[in-house]
Design goal:
heterodimer; A: about 375 residues; alpha/beta; Rossmann fold; 2 domains; five-stranded parallel sheet; globular; B: about 300 residues; mainly alpha; ABC transporter involved in vitamin B12 uptake, BtuC; two-stranded antiparallel sheet; 11 helices; about 70% helix
Chain lengths: ~375, ~300
């Protein structure tokens, strides 16, 4: 027993030393640590890459211009693989071990909702550039913000488009049973029903599968004239392809979960992705405020697609909140400042309501073309 | 119920079931011979999907223009390389543990599964990969108006035919050849077979090779059919195929195919006529029911405990 008690003491001491070392390293010098949490591995890792490209460039640019009140930004990566339980451990690591000053993330709504509780408990500012589920900001957590829209807004735009422009009478709604996909599908359905159209089908598919032929046959049997899909590209691709293969001519409409080249890849070619509609924020690449940053990316051969510029803008917002509130550690003060002020970002001026949602929103409809790109629907 | 829809769901279910069956064979053969569940088998199938795309790219870049010839070449090479994977897995992860507890190889299998998944993720990236559509065309059976038809694409025909041929060949191999006899002898009593001069280590290796070869056929066909794959596809498909193997009676070859078809058809019909949300619940309910009333599975033979 003696051995064990010594062992435990030794362990406790070494743990203490390690913690002291870590905390001093975080606070020493002129460094501001910002956690970048997202799916850097796993099935949606493509979006993690976009996160990192945006955040890295923003940190580089801000540091080159004197940093945050003289302190340099240091980014810390947290990989959640789009898994809620992994997001929990990432959040704990960022808060307790890395002692970050603020967090940009996460990507998937299910992970953002889970992890945000930890950040809120720690009084840490968290801003997600991508999670659109209403729950993210509906729980009254004071330090949680987003620089993107909400599914209810996205669903509204999509439903308006489907009814007004596509003149749909028989709509099939499919989702992937995740927080994001189901939330989006329900928001769409709510608006659709308000507009006086009832869906002919509301059903969920299983993530990770590739064969949706049975579901496609069902959609076909219901004679749907529009198919709405709430989910992400891994399933949207094969689903779109199988719709075409079985000769369903009804157009597919989806949300911002398919804003990636990977949608075309997982569909098996531009031919299968062509004609699919999706809602996404007004193309951030066309906003004048960001022109030089976009040009900078393109010069290095990177197309700042999807969430790249959202991530860039989010880092800008975090930096602005730190400068504006005069603190780099107190998340609640930063949050208070953000509620009362607006920030000039590469995506234009942004301001937030009491919940932490953006006050101005700009979802528009895009359409995938036959070359694997997408353009705004006029 | 619409006849067209029923027919189309039948086609969907048969295709899905054939794929499950091809992969289930790998689970059932390994279980039959060494009594362990090879959880890495789903990853073998995933690797074969990647291999088939890589070989397809190589072969087409070498100037082979004839599609059937290119596909045949891809199939052969993929089967060969996937079989090497299967053989190596057995050699590295299971053979050293053969004398130990029953749980050790199981843990080792889960480990290998994680290793293979991440090996592919790091080597090939996490993104979905795709192949361009190669085989076009389909048979459409019209009933009434031009809009209502039952469709079966060329690739879907290929999947059903290839899995039937593959299963037939395997069945012949097991029942009629000396190799098959050695396999069955090893399955019945490994010690006795060894005493009678059967090289049981070699037989076990061959079983892994055969199982992987069947998974490779599924990998090639699935890649052609769905056009895309990622490092994660082995998981869900592996679980389903394993379920098919248990449903049909683990250890029984025809059982694996039957289990695959039952699973594929029940998923397809439940999804098509009732609810897609709960199709997996339904599929697993069938499994539970079968196991309650026939614990050894549909075609399995009840195991007699040797004393």
């Amino acid at each position: 027993m003696r051995f064990f008690s010594w062992f435990i003491k030794g362990y406790a001491i070494s743990l203490f030393v390690v913690l002291v070392l870590f905390s001093t390293s975080a606070k020493a010098g002129g460094i501001v640590k910002i956690g970048v949490a997202g799916p850097f591995s796993g099935p949606v890792a493509a979006f993690g890459d976009q996160f990192w490209r945006g955040a890295e460039q923003a940190a580089h640019d801000i540091n080159a211009n004197g940093g945050v009140a003289g302190k340099k930004i240091l980014l810390v990566r947290g990989d959640d693989s789009c898994e809620p339980k992994q997001a929990l451990s990432v959040a704990n690591r960022l808060v307790d071990l890395e002692e970050v000053n603020a967090v940009m993330g996460h990507f998937c709504s299910s992970t953002t909702v889970t992890a945000s509780e930890i950040y809120a408990d720690a009084g840490l500012l968290m801003i997600t550039p991508a999670s659109t589920n209403p729950m993210v900001t509906e729980r009254g957590l004071p330090t949680i913000f987003r620089t993107t829209g909400r599914d209810d807004q996205q669903g509204t735009v999509a439903a308006n488009f489907v009814v007004d422009k596509l003149h749909a009478k028989r709509v099939a709604i499919i989702h992937d049973k995740t927080t994001y996909g189901l939330g989006l599908a329900e928001a769409f359905k709510a608006r659709l029903n308000t507009l006086g159209v009832t869906q002919v089908l509301f059903d969920g598919l299983t993530r990770g599968e590739k064969d949706f032929n049975a579901l496609v046959t069902k959609v076909k049997g219901k004679h749907a004239d529009v198919v709405y899909f709430g989910g992400i590209h891994n399933e949207a691709g094969p689903f779109a392809r199988q719709l075409k293969e079985q000769g369903v001519s009804a157009p597919m409409v989806s949300g911002d979960g398919i804003v990636s080249d990977e949608f075309v890849l997982s569909a098996g070619g531009p031919g299968y992705a062509e004609g699919v509609y999706m809602t996404f924020g007004a193309d951030p690449r066309k906003i004048p405020a960001g022109a030089s940053v976009v040009a900078g990316y393109r010069k290095r051969g990177i197309e700042p697609e999807g969430y790249t510029l959202y991530s860039y803008a989010t880092i800008q917002v975090i930096a602005a909140a730190m400068v504006g509130s005069g603190t780099t550690t107190d998340g609640e003060k930063m949050a208070e400042w953000l509620h009362n002020n607006s920030v000039d970002t590469i995506m234009g001026k942004k301001s937030w309501d009491a919940k932490g949602d953006l006050t101005i929103l700009d979802y528009v409809m895009y359409r995938w073309d036959d070359k694997g790109g997408y353009g705004e629907v006029e | 119920m619409d006849l067209i829809i029923v027919g189309q769901q039948l086609v969907n279910g048969l295709v899905l079931g054939s794929i499950y069956g091809l992969i289930a064979v790998g689970y059932t053969m390994v279980y039959g011979i060494i009594g362990m569940i090879n959880f890495a088998h789903g990853e073998v199938y995933m690797i074969s999907a990647y291999l088939s795309a890589i070989f397809l790219a190589i072969i087409t870049s070498m100037g082979v223009v004839s599609v059937p010839f290119a596909l045949l070449l891809v199939l052969v090479v993929t089967i060969f390389v996937t079989a090497i994977y299967g053989w190596s897995i057995e050699r590295v992860a299971y053979r050293p543990l053969r004398g130990s507890t029953r749980l050790a190889p199981l843990i080792s299998a889960i480990g290998i599964s994680l290793v293979l998944q991440n090996y592919v993720r790091i080597g090939q990236g996490a993104k979905s990969q795709g192949v361009p559509p190669l085989i076009d065309g389909s048979f459409r059976f019209h009933l009434g108006s031009p809009d209502s038809f039952i469709q079966i694409t060329m690739i879907q025909c290929l999947i059903i035919v290839a899995s039937l041929i593959g299963m037939g060949a395997l069945h012949y191999l097991m029942q009629k050849t000396a190799l098959g006899r050695a396999c069955r002898a090893t399955q019945q009593d490994r010690t006795m077979a060894r005493l009678l001069g059967v090289d049981t280590d070699k037989v076990i290796s061959i079983v892994f090779v055969l199982g992987s070869a069947m998974a490779a056929i599924a990998g090639v066909l699935v890649t052609l059919n769905y056009g895309s794959f990622d490092f994660h596809i082995g998981f869900v498909t592996g679980i389903k195929a394993f379920t098919a193997a248990v449903l049909g009676g683990i250890g029984s070859l025809p059982g694996a195919m039957l289990g695959g078809l039952v699973l594929g058809l029940s998923e397809s019909f439940f999804s098509g006529f009732i609810n897609t949300d709960y199709k997996d619940v339904f599929a697993f309910s069938i499994l539970v029911l079968v196991l309650i009333f026939k614990p050894s599975g549909l075609l399995g033979v009840a195991e007699v405990e040797k004393v």
